[in-house]
Amino acid sequence: MANPVHARYALLAAVLLAPAVACQFLVSSDVFQCTTDGDCASRGGQFATATCVSRVCVQPSADSGGGEASVDSGPDALFACANTPYPTEESLTHLVTYSRTFQNASGNQGLTEIGVRVCSLFDQTCLSPRDQGGATTIFPNAAGTVTVQVGYGFAGLLEVNNLDGGQQYVTPALIQIHPPLIQDASVGPNALMVSPATFAGVASLVFDAGAVASGLAHLFFRTHDCQDNSLSGISVDVDKQDTLGRTRRFYFNADNLPLADEVQTDPGGKGGFLNLPPGTATLTARFHDTTKFMGKVSVALRADYITYVIITPSAP
After folding, report:
1. Vertex 26 angle, CA 24 and 29, to 5°
2. Is 205 or 4 the better-scoring residue by pLDDT?
3. More confident: 6 or 60
């Protein structure tokens, strides 16, 4: 039988965001990708048989007599999306469709007892939710899938909540769309949501009793390259913390255990913060070994909500 404490840790790890829409580029060969062959294998796909050479994943080339060639075949593509000219404003005359499937983390079953609203990034409390075909609250289908329409360049929020008067299936959440949507998207894996009791219990086991402070906000992040591969060796800082010293940063290790004393992402690229001041904060990601800038994003934080966001390459 699985250790119940470890099972709860894994449950918390599972709720981290699904990959964002990829920055449509190939991959470069001059960036930090790995420290071991296992880091390459963990990326899957074409990386599965690659080896780690000078921190780049490479694999035998059929055209070079068995010599090694980088699996990154295009110019600067792992970080090319840092230079993508994403729109600075959303166009409401050019609509794109976005789909997301929500499941409960305990049984991987589609969540139907939730409501989802589309909100502006500057409307963290969703006082002015977007109309979606005559309604502002969208309910999942039987599989737990929600589909919304937003404007080209949308970089806002999906507010996820329990239905009024219903059981507390999920910890209230804000899913922040980053980078901006510039095409129809149906991303995966599915969003696994945890109940408030599970979230509080796991956080207390990891840190201490009462680790989740009422009235503060929480954040889960993933670090990805431009092809939606998770990035290891990334340190993430936040520019605002709780004035009473209750903010806690953590990274998940290979066993999906959140560790407060870790200093960088492992190949899974996952981490988070507990107890941040509500409002807006900026996350800055750097390669831990070199302090080289990787990306940054401004995030919306709401009291007693978890914000989920992907940190992708960007200009400083």
Report:
1. 145
2. 205
3. 60
